[in-house]
C-alpha cells in the first residue's frame, strides 16, 4: 500500500496492541472515523482510495456513490476484504470488491441513479493499515435525476449528518478547484457541525484541471477563505489514468511532479499532495492516541494493584527460583496460623457478614447454646415428686419418719447433677465442629496446592480429635467433682433451717375469684401468692393489704367447664373432708385469661402438694399430708442447690474447653504444624500443583509482568510521539451557514441556478494587491459578489406575513482580484440585476408581499 505516514504510525499502535494481547485483553483504542464529504464528481472516492492505497471504488460520471460505504480497516497479517452482507466470503482481488459494491448498490437502489441511506459495510484486512473507519458518502446534489426522489438534497444532507455530527469523526471537506469555494456545500455542512473547525480539513482537488493562467495559491496558503486547519491540495488520477491501469504509487509520483513543477505551488509543494494529507490525518490520529493513553494507564495501574494483591506470595521472586517452593510453604503455613488466630480472636480484616463463624460462633455456644441446653432439661414434675416420695419412704424404711431426711435430698440432687453431663459434652462437640470448619476456611488459601491443603487439614483435625478426648475427660471430671460432695453450707443455698424459717414462694400472679358475687367482693382480680403452706391473696401486687390466707391442708384441684358467656378459663380448689374452703363456699373458683395460665397454676399447686382430683385414685401417691410437705420441702431445696451447680458448671465448662481445646490448637498450629508437615511427606510432593492451578499461577505472574511492561510501553509512546496543538482560530465567517430545512414538496418547481461566467486572471500578471479589510477584526478579504441560486416561491402564509423588500444593487467587483479568486463580468451582472429588479416590481404590484430576491 502507498500510505507511508500510516506505516510509520502502525508500529507504535502495534506495540500497544501487543502489550494488551499479552494480558489476554483487547486494546479498545477507538481511533477517529474519517468521513469524506463533497459534491458530485469532486474526487471524494479518489481521495479515499489514495488514503487506503488500493483501487477498489466504483468510478464514473454523475452520482456514482449512491449508498454510504463504511470501510473498516483492520490490521492483519493477510490482505483481503469481506462484506457484511457476504459473511464468510473473502475477496483477494480488489476488482471483485468494486464489482460487488456496484452490484450491492444496484440491488437496493435500482439501476437508475436511486439512492439509499442503508450503508454498505466493507472490511479490509491488511498489515499496512491501522484499525480505522473510513466513510465514503454520496455526493451533494440538488437536482433529482432518474429514480431519485424530489427531496434528494434533503435526504443526502441527512445521510451525511448522521456521520459527521459524531465528535469522533474527522471531516475531509472535498471541493474541486474549478468551482466556487465560497459556496462549497461540504464546507457549509462541516461548519454547521464543527463550528470551531477542529475536525475539518479542506481538500482541494482537480488543481490540474483549472483554466490555463489561473491557480488556487491564495486558497492553499490559507490567505483567502481561510480554515482553521487549512487546505491540502491533491491531484487525483484522471479517468484516462484509471482506464490505463495507472497504479496509485505512480499517480503519487505524478502528483509530486505536478506540485514541484507548477510555478504557483512549488514553494508549498511539501505541504501539498496525498502524502501530506496522510501526514496531517496521521498526526490527528497520534494526538487522539496520546489523549487516550491516560485512561489506559489508569486502567492498567488499577489492574496491577488487584494483581499484586492476588500474587502477593509470589511477586517478590521469579517462577524459576529453585527456593520458591520452600519459601511458599513457609509463608503459607505462617499465613494459615495468622488466619486461624484472627478467625478465633476476631479482627477487622476478615469479617463474615453472612453468618457467625469462628470465635463469634464459639462465644455463642458458650453463652447461649450451652445455657439453653441446661435449661432445656425439663423435669417431669410428677416424676420428680414421685422419685422424692420414694426416696423418703425408702430411707425411713419400716418406720414412719418424723423429719425430712437429708439423704433423700442428696440422692435426688446427685441424680440431677449427673444429667448435666449431656449438655456439657454436647458443647464440646459443637466447639470441635466449629474449629474444624474454621480450619477448612483457613485452608482455602492453600487450594493451589491440593496435597498441602489436605495434609494441613488432616494434621490439625487429628490434633483436635486428640484434644477432644482429654477435654471431655476433664468435663466429666468436673461433673463428678460436683457429685462427690454436696455442699449444703454454700452461702447461696437456702438450707433446711432457712426453708423452715422462710417458706419459699412458689408462684405469684393475678387471679379472679369467679364464684363470689360482685356485692361480696368477688368477680374481681386479686394478687395471689402461693407458698408451700398456704395460698394468700392481696388487693394488689404491693402485698400490703392481705385479703385472706388459705391453708393448703386437704386441698385438691379440679377443672371447671368454661361458661358460655365468659372468656375466662377456670379451675377450682376444694377440701377433701367436705369442709368449706372460704367462708360459706365449698369451692373456690379461680379464673385465668388463658388455658396456659391454668396449667401453670395447677403445676405450681402440684409442687405445693395440692393434687388434681383425679390423681387421688392412683396408688403411687400418698394421702399423708406430712409426706407431701416433706416432698415439697426437698423439691424446693433441690431447686436451690441445682441453681448453684448450674451457675458453677456454666462458668467452668467454657473455661475448660478454652484451655484444653482452643488455646492448645492455636499453640499447636504455631509451633508444631510446620514440623509435622515436613515429617509427613516430601516437600516437593506437598507443593505439587494441579495442571489448572499451576497454569493459573503462571498466568497471574505473567500478567503481572505484562502489566508492568505495558505501562513502560505507554511511557515510550508518549516519548516517541509528539502532540501537535490545534492551530489558532481564524475568521471563517465567509462560510454561510446552511439552515436545515424540511424536505421540499414534490410539486415545488425549482429555479435554475444562475451564475455569471468566470473570468480568471492571466498567468502573466504580477501579484494582485490585497483587498482592503472591511474591519479590524476581519480575518479575510471580502468575497467578490456572485449571485447564487434563487430561493423557491414562498407559500401563501409566508407571503401574507412578510413585508415587501426592495432589492439592493449588487456590489461591483473591485478593480483587481487576488490571484486564485474569480471575478464577475460587470456588464452581464448589471443586466441580470436590472431584469431581477423589473420582475420584482411587476410581482410587487400584484402580490405586494412576494419577496423574489
TrEMBL record:
Gene3D superfamilies: Dynamin, middle domain, P-loop containing nucleotide triphosphate hydrolases, Pleckstrin-homology domain (PH domain)/Phosphotyrosine-binding domain (PTB). Residues 723-823 are annotated as: Disordered. GO terms for cellular component: cytoplasm; microtubule; plasma membrane; presynapse. Keywords: Acetylation, Cytoplasm, Cytoskeleton, Endocytosis, GTP-binding, Hydrolase, Microtubule, Motor protein, Nucleotide-binding. Residues 769-794, 804-817 have a biased composition (Pro residues). Residues 504-610 form the PH domain. InterPro entries: Dynamin (IPR022812), Dynamin_GTPase (IPR001401), Dynamin_GTPase_CS (IPR019762), Dynamin_N (IPR045063), Dynamin_stalk (IPR000375), G_DYNAMIN_dom (IPR030381), GED (IPR003130), GED_dom (IPR020850). GO terms for biological process: receptor internalization; synaptic vesicle budding from presynaptic endocytic zone membrane. Its main location: cytoplasm. SMART domains: DYNc, GED, PH. Pfam families: Dynamin_M (PF01031), Dynamin_N (PF00350), GED (PF02212), PH (PF00169). It comes from the Eukaryota. Its EC number is 3.6.5.5. Residues 631-722 form the GED domain. Residues 28-294 form the Dynamin-type G domain. One of its GO terms (molecular function) is microtubule binding. PANTHER family: DYNAMIN, DYNAMIN-3. This is dynamin GTPase. It comes from Equus asinus asinus. The gene is DNM3.
Amino acid at each position: 500500500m502507498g500510505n507511508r505516514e500510516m506505516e510509520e504510525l502502525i508500529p507504535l499502535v502495534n506495540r500497544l496492541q501487543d502489550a494488551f494481547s499479552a494480558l489476554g485483553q483487547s486494546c479498545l483504542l477507538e481511533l477517529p472515523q474519517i468521513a469524506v464529504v463533497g459534491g458530485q464528481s469532486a474526487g471524494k472516492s479518489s481521495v479515499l482510495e489514495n488514503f487506503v492505497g488500493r483501487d477498489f471504488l466504483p468510478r464514473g460520471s454523475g452520482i456514482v456513490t449512491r449508498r454510504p460505504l463504511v470501510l473498516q480497516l483492520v490490521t492483519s497479517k493477510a490482505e483481503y476484504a469481506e462484506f457484511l452482507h457476504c459473511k464468510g466470503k473473502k475477496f483477494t482481488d480488489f476488482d471483485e470488491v468494486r464489482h460487488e459494491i456496484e452490484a450491492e448498490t444496484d440491488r437496493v437502489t435500482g439501476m437508475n441513479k436511486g439512492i439509499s441511506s442503508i450503508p454498505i459495510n466493507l472490511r479490509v484486512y491488511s498489515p499496512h493499515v491501522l484499525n480505522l473507519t473510513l466513510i465514503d458518502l454520496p455526493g451533494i446534489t440538488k437536482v433529482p435525476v432518474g429514480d431519485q426522489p424530489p427531496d434528494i438534497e434533503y435526504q443526502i444532507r441527512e445521510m451525511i449528518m448522521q456521520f459527521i455530527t459524531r465528535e469522533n469523526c474527522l471531516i475531509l471537506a472535498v471541493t474541486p478547484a474549478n468551482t466556487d469555494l465560497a459556496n462549497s456545500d461540504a464546507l457549509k455542512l462541516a461548519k454547521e457541525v464543527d463550528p470551531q473547525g477542529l475536525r475539518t480539513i479542506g481538500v482541494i482537488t482537480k488543481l490540474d484541471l483549472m483554466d490555463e493562467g489561473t491557480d488556487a495559491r491564495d486558497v492553499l496558503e490559507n490567505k483567502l477563505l481561510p480554515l482553521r486547519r487549512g487546505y491540502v491540495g491533491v491531484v487525483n488520477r484522471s479517468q484516462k489514468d484509471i482506464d490505463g491501469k495507472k497504479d496509485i504509487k505512480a499517480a503519487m509520483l505524478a502528483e509530486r511532479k505536478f506540485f514541484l513543477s507548477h510555478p504557483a505551488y512549488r514553494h508549498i509543494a511539501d505541504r501539498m499532495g496525498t502524502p501530506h494529507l496522510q501526514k496531517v490525518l496521521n498526526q490527528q490520529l497520534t494526538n487522539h492516541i496520546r489523549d487516550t493513553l491516560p485512561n489506559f494507564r489508569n486502567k492498567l495501574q488499577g489492574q496491577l494493584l488487584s494483581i499484586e494483591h492476588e500474587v502477593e506470595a509470589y511477586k517478590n521472586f521469579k517462577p524459576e527460583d529453585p527456593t520458591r517452593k520452600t519459601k511458599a510453604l513457609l509463608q503459607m503455613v505462617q499465613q494459615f496460623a495468622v488466619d486461624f488466630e484472627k478467625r478465633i480472636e476476631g479482627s477487622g480484616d476478615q469479617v463474615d457478614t453472612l453468618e457467625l463463624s469462628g470465635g463469634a460462633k464459639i462465644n455463642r455456644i458458650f453463652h447461649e447454646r450451652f445455657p439453653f441446653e441446661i435449661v432445656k432439661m425439663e423435669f417431669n414434675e410428677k416424676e420428680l415428686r414421685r422419685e422424692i416420695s420414694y426416696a423418703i419412704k425408702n430411707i425411713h424404711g419400716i418406720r414412719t419418719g418424723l423429719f425430712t431426711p437429708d439423704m433423700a435430698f442428696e440422692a435426688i440432687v446427685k441424680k440431677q447433677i449427673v444429667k448435666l453431663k449431656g449438655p456439657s459434652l454436647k458443647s464440646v462437640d459443637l466447639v470441635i465442629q466449629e474449629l474444624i470448619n474454621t480450619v477448612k476456611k483457613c485452608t482455602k488459601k492453600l487450594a493451589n496446592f491440593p496435597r498441602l491443603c489436605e495434609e494441613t487439614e488432616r494434621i490439625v483435625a487429628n490434633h483436635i480429635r486428640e484434644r477432644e478426648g482429654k477435654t471431655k475427660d476433664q468435663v466429666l471430671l468436673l461433673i463428678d467433682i460436683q457429685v462427690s460432695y454436696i455442699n449444703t453450707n454454700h452461702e447461696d443455698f437456702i438450707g433446711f433451717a432457712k426453708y423452715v424459717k422462710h417458706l419459699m414462694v412458689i408462684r405469684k400472679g393475678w387471679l379472679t375469684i369467679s364464684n363470689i358475687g360482685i356485692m361480696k367482693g368477688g368477680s374481681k382480680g386479686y394478687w395471689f401468692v402461693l407458698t408451700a403452706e398456704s395460698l394468700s391473696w392481696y388487693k394488689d401486687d404491693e402485698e400490703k393489704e392481705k385479703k385472706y390466707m388459705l391453708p393448703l391442708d386437704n386441698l385438691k384441684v379440679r377443672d371447671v367447664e368454661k361458661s358460655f358467656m365468659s372468656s375466662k378459663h377456670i379451675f377450682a380448689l376444694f377440701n377433701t373432708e367436705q369442709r368449706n374452703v372460704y367462708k360459706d363456699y365449698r369451692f373456690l373458683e379461680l379464673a385465668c385469661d388463658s388455658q396456659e395460665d391454668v396449667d401453670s397454676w395447677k403445676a405450681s399447686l402440684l409442687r405445693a402438694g395440692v393434687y388434681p382430683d383425679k390423681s387421688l385414685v392412683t396408688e403411687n401417691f400418698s394421702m399423708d399430708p406430712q409426706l407431701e410437705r416433706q416432698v415439697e420441702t426437698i423439691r424446693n431445696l433441690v431447686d436451690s442447690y441445682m441453681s448453684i451447680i448450674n451457675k458453677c458448671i456454666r462458668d467452668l465448662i467454657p473455661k475448660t474447653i478454652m484451655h484444653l481445646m482452643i488455646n492448645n490448637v492455636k499453640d499447636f498450629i504455631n509451633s508444631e504444624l510446620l514440623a509435622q508437615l515436613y515429617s509427613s511427606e516430601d516437600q516437593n510432593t506437598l507443593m505439587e500443583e494441579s495442571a489448572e492451578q499451576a497454569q493459573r499461577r503462571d498466568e497471574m505472574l505473567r500478567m503481572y509482568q505484562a502489566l508492568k511492561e505495558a505501562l513502560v510501553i505507554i511511557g515510550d509512546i508518549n516519548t516517541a510521539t509528539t502532540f501537535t496543538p490545534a492551530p489558532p482560530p481564524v475568521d471563517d465567517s465567509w462560510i454561510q451557514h446552511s439552515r436545515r430545512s424540511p424536505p421540499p414538496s414534490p410539486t415545488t418547481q425549482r429555479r435554475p441556478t444562475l451564475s455569471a461566467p468566470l473570468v480568471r486572471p492571466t498567468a502573466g500578471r504580477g501579484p494582485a494587491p490585497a483587498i482592503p479589510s472591511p474591519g479590524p477584526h476581519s480575518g479575510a478579504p471580502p468575497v467578490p459578489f456572485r449571485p447564487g441560486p434563487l430561493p423557491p416561491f414562498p407559500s401563501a402564509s409566508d407571503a401574507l406575513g412578510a413585508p415587501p423588500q426592495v432589492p439592493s444593487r449588487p456590489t461591483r467587483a473591485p478593480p483587481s482580484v487576488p490571484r486564485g479568486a474569480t471575478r464577475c463580468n460587470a456588464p452581464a451582472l448589471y443586466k441580470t440585476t436590472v431584469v431581477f429588479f423589473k420582475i420584482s416590481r411587476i410581482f410587487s404590484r400584484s402580490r405586494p408581499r412576494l419577496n423574489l430576491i
